[in-house]
Design brief:
0% strand; mainly alpha; 53% helix
């Protein structure tokens, strides 16, 4: 019990004196553990070629009349492959085209993209 209190007193005195070295209960200096490499094992295997992601140039989406026209062409291409086009797709595409024609590109693009998504998922 007495040695524990003596150790606590030594620790408290060390902290109050501003000494930055780490010391044990009897005053001996404790060395820090040796630092090793952050990764000392073998490197992980590289993935097979068929699972490597393709590096493509990302398509930047912007609010322009050209992008509206591109979406409208995509809708027309998908429409040709389907026998029956749902009425909500027709309504969304027409509304999107109308909004793009009066300069409201963001809401027009949103409606055209929604129509294209619905067309692609319609079977």
């Amino acid at each position: 019990m007495f040695s524990w209190r003596l150790g606590m007193l030594a620790t408290l005195l060390t902290l109050l004196s501003g000494h930055s070295g780490a010391q044990g209960f009897r005053g001996e200096v404790i060395a820090p553990p040796p630092m090793g490499e952050p990764w000392s094992g073998p490197l992980p295997p590289s993935p097979p070629p068929q699972f490597r992601p393709r590096m493509e140039t990302p398509q930047l989406l912007n609010d322009t009349p050209e992008y509206c026209a591109e979406l409208r062409q995509s809708i027309d291409r998908v429409r040709l492959r389907l026998n029956v086009v749902p009425p909500d797709v027709t309504m969304l595409a027409e509304e999107g085209e109308r909004l793009c024609s009066i300069g409201h590109y963001r809401p027009g693009i949103m409606r055209l993209r929604t129509a294209l998504m619905l067309l692609r998922n319609a079977n």
